[in-house]
């Protein structure tokens, strides 16, 4: 079994966590850590759920790409949304960043009181499988 911890140059760096982890045995599993609406420098991209959702989704795609995967390989997503935010606006923002309609994963949406940074309105994590 091999484990690769991936921190692609297309995502912000933080010494406290890894952006994605790929596990191969012999199938390859990719675990994408929670992605927020931040750009490569770690700056929050906007103060609305739609723009943060679009960026968070783009960040998930960037982490998947670093592991050799695509959205079509995602088998599970967990989406954390700050209470009071519009799920419809979040969905519309995510749709701008990518389309999973051909092979939709299992998805859980969890409403939370807050996230690690008070400016964050959404966080998306994913699990992908390459078989």
List keywords for this structure.
single chain; 131 residues; 60s Ribosomal Protein L30, Chain: A; 2 helices; globular
Q: What's the topology here?
A:
Layout lengths: L1 E5 L13 E5 L3 E8 L13 H18 L7 E9 L4 H11 L8 E7 L9 E9 L1
Parallel strand pairs: 4-5
Antiparallel strand pairs: 1-2, 2-3, 3-6, 4-6
Helix pairs in contact: 1-2
Describe this structure in words.
With 131 residues, the chain is an alpha+beta fold. The protein has a single domain, classed as 2-Layer Sandwich (60s Ribosomal Protein L30, Chain: A), CATH 3.30.1330. It has 2 helices and 6 strands, in the order βββαβαββ. Strands 1-2-3-6-4-5 form a 6-stranded mixed sheet. α1 (49-66) packs across α2. The longest helix has 18 residues, at 49-66. The chain starts with a strand and ends with a strand. The model has no long low-confidence stretch (mean pLDDT 91).
User: Helicity, in percent?
Assistant: 10-25%
Second CATH tier, the architecture: 2-Layer Sandwich
Would you report the number of β strands?
Answer: 6
The domain count comes to 1
Main beta sheet: 6 strands, mixed
């Amino acid at each position: 079994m091999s484990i690769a911890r991936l921190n692609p140059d297309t995502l912000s760096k933080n010494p406290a966590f890894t952006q994605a982890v790929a596990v191969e045995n012999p199938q390859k599993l990719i675990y994408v850590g929670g992605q927020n609406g931040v750009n490569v420098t770690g700056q929050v991209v906007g103060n609305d759920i739609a723009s943060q959702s679009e960026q968070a989704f783009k960040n998930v795609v960037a982490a998947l790409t670093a592991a050799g995967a695509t959205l079509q390989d995602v088998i599970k997503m967990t989406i954390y949304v700050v209470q009071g935010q519009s799920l419809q606006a979040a969905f519309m923002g995510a749709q701008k960043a990518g389309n999973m309609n051909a092979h939709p994963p299992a998805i859980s949406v969890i409403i939370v009181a807050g996230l690690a940074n008070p400016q964050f309105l959404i966080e998306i994590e994913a699990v992908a499988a390459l078989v």
